[in-house]
């Protein structure tokens, strides 16, 4: 009897990921930082983007100090030229692009009636239109790459739009989830994997103290980074198209 070995499958995928170039948007902090550190520790070459060059440089230094390879690109995703220029600069860095982890996002936590039309449009731009534009620009490279991949860090609110003060954010995230599903259906034969990860509340600067959440009950960004690696290394030709991470504070207490 032959039992196929999960380990050898994994090894093959892990080896093929080593040296791959991945663009991590929102790499200057929070979940994007955790993802960038994790992927670099697995041997991927990481391009980090965000607006704050000093914060990007700090993450880059952490990666380089632990033996990894990283580059940084400052770009504002409310600038409509930002997405295409990010992709062009990433490809120029190492002559290839194997994957995009779209983490950049912003939430104002402001009531709809108190948001200007410009503020609302910015929220749609950063959380929906910019990720789509990045994927559009990256697609030729991703198709060329073996096992190209796109991971959207979406949110559980795309399935369950619970919180008040989030109309723009929730609208954008719901749109991005449907885009992700629809894109996968269109390009599945290309070999490019498309995944949406839907985290619950996570302990990052996006969640301001004024909202009053108990931070010990929020998800650790490192758990989201684990999930990114998990969806990037599936067995065989399966594609994990959607993954939910819910907080379970009682487990944290057990481990404390
Ligand atoms: N925290 C949560 O509870 C939670 C839950 C579910 C999903 N998410 C999602 O997870 C992703 C990461 O969020 P986070 O929690 O890590 O938040 P965060 O710590 O505030 O990080 C947001 C990242 O997005 C970048 N960014 C924001 N606006 C940008 C712009 N206009 N142009 C370019 N980059 C911009 C920021 O970089 P700069 O400041 O350097 O520009 C930063 O790196 C987001 O897509 C968010 O929607 C978060």
Write the layout of secondary structure elements.
Blueprint (H helix, E strand, L loop, with lengths): L5 H12 L3 E5 L4 H12 L3 E6 L2 H13 L3 E6 L7 H13 L4 E4 L14 H28 L4 E5 L13 H21 L5 E7 L21 H12 L9 E4 L3 H7 L1
Parallel strand pairs: 1-2, 1-4, 2-3, 4-5, 5-6, 6-7
Helix pairs in contact: 2-7, 4-5, 5-6
The structure holds NADP nicotinamide-adenine-dinucleotide phosphate.
NADP nicotinamide-adenine-dinucleotide phosphate (NAP) binds next to helix 2.
Average per-residue pLDDT, rounded, comes to: 91
Large-scale geometry: globular
Bound molecules: NADP nicotinamide-adenine-dinucleotide phosphate
**Rg (C-alpha, Å):** 18 Å
Please provide the ordered H/E string of secondary-structure elements. HEHEHEHEHEHEHEH
Query: Order of strands across the biggest sheet?
Result: 3-2-1-4-5-6-7
Q: Termini, distance in Å?
A: 44 Å
Architecture overview:
- The protein has 256 residues and is α/β, with parallel strands linked by helices.
- The protein has one domain: NAD(P)-binding Rossmann-like Domain (Rossmann fold), CATH 3.40.50.
- It is built from 8 helices and 7 strands.
- It has helices at 6-17, 30-41, 53-65, 82-94, 117-144, 167-187, 221-232, 249-255; strands at 21-25, 45-50, 69-74, 99-102, 149-153, 193-199, 242-245.
- A 7-stranded parallel β-sheet has the order 3-2-1-4-5-6-7, sandwiched between helices.
- α4 (82-94) packs parallel to α5 (117-144) and α5 (117-144) packs parallel to α6 (167-187).
- The longest helix is centred in the middle third of the chain and has 28 residues, at 117-144.
- NADP nicotinamide-adenine-dinucleotide phosphate binds next to α2.
